[in-house]
Amino acid sequence: MSQKELLKVNNLKQHFPIKGGILGRTVNHVKAVDDVTFDIYEGETLSVVGESGCGKSTTGRAILRLDEPTDGSIEFDGVDLLSLSRRDMRKKRKDLQVIFQDPYASLNPRQTVGKILTEAMAIQNAVPKEKRRERAIELLETVGLNADQIDRYPHEFSGGQRQRIGIARALSVDPKLIICDEAVSALDVSVQAQVLNLLKKLQREFNLTFLFIAHDLGVVRHISDRIIVMYLGKIVEIADKKSLFDNPQHPYTKALLSSIPTPDPEVKKERIILKGDVPSPINPPQGCRFHTRCPFATDICRQEVPELRNLDNMKEGHRAACHHIEKIAAEH
Amino acid sequence: MSQETILDIKDLRTSFLVEDFEVKAVDGVSFKLPKGKTIGIVGESGSGKSITAMSILQLLDKPGKIMGGEINFKGKDLTKLSEKEIQNIRGNEISMIFQEPMTSLNPVYTIGQQIRETLKVHQGLNKQNGTKKAIELLSLVGIPSPEQRVKQYPHELSGGMRQRVMIAMALACNPELLIADEPTTALDVTIQAQILELIKDLQKDLGMSVIMITHDMGVVAETCDYVAVMYGGKVVEYQDVKSIFKSPKHPYTVGLLNSIPRHDTDVDELEPIKGNVPSPKDMPVGCRFAPRCPFATELCEKELPSLDTQADGSEVRCWVYTDRWDGDPEVNVRESKRTAESE
Question: Measured between CB atoms, does B219 come within 8 Å of chain A?
């Protein structure tokens, strides 16, 4: 793979203010994303996984500037996205598209499929007016729908078909990067498999880059090249797919992987069951954010925030943020 | 099966009557559950798995109605009981936990009040004893500092904690049968692991039988002893859990297993089932799965197969396993790798 960075995210912070009191003053912040740095290479699928509230969707929204980030920089194809005016950003969204989880809520129920697809092209002026309908038909066929369905409304389609329309709309402006925010989570497994295969096929055909946000590690293993694991607004581990599943280093990643039920009753595995819940992101724990649930936590974990590190037993590019990687590796 | 059977459902049919139109949500479901065991009911949305559970407890909303069949619980046919009699069984002998713990708890009452209500109705406990029992139940399901928690409202608890409260309420009267309808679907995986572990431990300690309704084959593999696969309101396959994963028989079960993206192995390309789940308003006349089945013949499209017991004890609803099969006699449902084309 040509290792050209398409997107560089540096020290991204997204803090949402909490207003309180009679004066409506900001009393505190939800630190949804706190100092996150990563790159996406052209043509790859990078997945972000984690549990609810870990900041994975917020990261995606911040890249698109659907929410204005608090701090940090986002560089896309050499352009600093945060320095663009709203107008220029809107133009830039031609290259950065998004597919959301709920395919029904994200399609206008009063527009036909044809209108939905041509509107995207019109806003970005991606296709000359007279060719738009033709292009829309082409797109429908690309995502596995029939050309004669172009004048139907979203409610006439099933969930899987609606997600295909969402994909067609994202493709309509020839984007470079597509952010898939839980794009297959709402679908039944037989239909989910159809959509996953479609995404893979489209990536090969159009040389797309995906930022894939998901909580299902089975889906993630199937579609990703590299994976980021987030916990409470921070990256705890980043690695290529094989290293992450075969040689996880962070205790949270290990627990997460061992928590997934395996669809095979003959497999007996050791399960690490974490105690307690994810703490609130309003007052995240000091030091390592995972220390309240970590079986290996010591004093240093309560005081110092661990950096992402690469060690000798890890492949290049595989990094984990834990003070005790060496100790844990030696014990097991 | 030589063990005692706690629940024996025969040909259950539940429909929703909408404007002279009958939507057959559950259309001939039969299965048995041996005492102390767990049965998984799996299927995709609209397969009728939740309606089956609701029918057992007769919690159907109008216009839902049980049209026929038997639900034998400890030898009694629940469909023949009066509303009053079923109320005695509900929450007492059979309990249920639902998917969304927030909507199943009343937001304006404290946790303690809600658990006490169950205890008062079914066991006649007064406030003091009720509170004592409520605290006991909360610590049983692993809630820290239960003395404080009984005074809290549902919104003060996290999703995992709420589901624990729901389980505590369901267990309040030591039910013999627990119906869990997607109990962990709304939870994160690390919390899901906690809750599944909890249900398993409690089942062992209390000797409960469990019906686990889920769409997640991973949950089935880890918690169930038997599995009933539902499609289009019907059970299409019933086997013990090991056999269903090792030698699935119905083409739908095979397709379902081939569709799962695995976190523990690499699969190059998933093999989805083509098409979509049929609408219950517009069910195919023959085998419900025929329009999506790669093996379907004319017979499949015209006539509905029955759920037949096979030589190895499994039950399958598919023409391939009958004398009347008119397709390729050598067909091997499992080995056909290509169950459907991706597009």
Answer: yes
- pLDDT confidence tier of residue B66, bands split at 50, 70 and 90: very high
Same-domain pairing of A87 and A180? yes
Gap from A78 CA to chain B (nearest CA, Å): 33
Across the interface, which of B158, B192, B256 has its CB nearest the CB of A190?
A: B256
Among B191, B221, B342, whose Cβ lies nearest the Cβ of A197?
A: B342
Domains annotated on chain B, with CATH:
5-230 (3.40.50.300)
| Residue B260 at interface with chain A, using a CB cutoff of 8 Å | yes
CATH assignment of the domain containing A249: 3.40.50.300
Query: Given a cut of 80, is residue A86 above it in pLDDT?
Result: yes
Chain segment B203-216, per-residue pLDDT in tens: 988 889 999 999 89
The answer to whether residue B267 neighbours chain A at the CB level (below 8 Å) is: yes
DSSP three-state, residue B127? helix
Q: What residues of A are in contact with residue B49 (Cβ under 8 Å)?
A: none
Q: Clarify whether residues A90 and A234 are in a common domain.
A: yes
Look at chain A and report how many structural domains it folds into.
Answer: 2
Asked if the structure places residue A286 within a domain, the reply is: no
Per the structure, the complete domain to which residue A158 belongs is given by 107-174
> Both A28 and A155 in a single domain?
no
Rounded to whole angstroms, the Cα distance separating A58 from A40 reads 17
Q: Rg for chain B (alpha carbons), in Å?
A: 21
A211 and A118 in one domain?
no
Task: Give the helix ranges, DSSP H, for chain B.
Answer: 49-57, 83-89, 101-104, 111-123, 127-140, 146-149, 159-171, 189-206, 217-223, 241-246, 251-259, 298-302
pLDDT for B134-143, tens place per residue?
A: 998 998 888 8
pLDDT at residue B280 tops 80: no
Q: Which residue of A has its CA nearest to B242?
A: A265
Q: Is B273 on the interface with A (CB under 8 A)?
A: yes
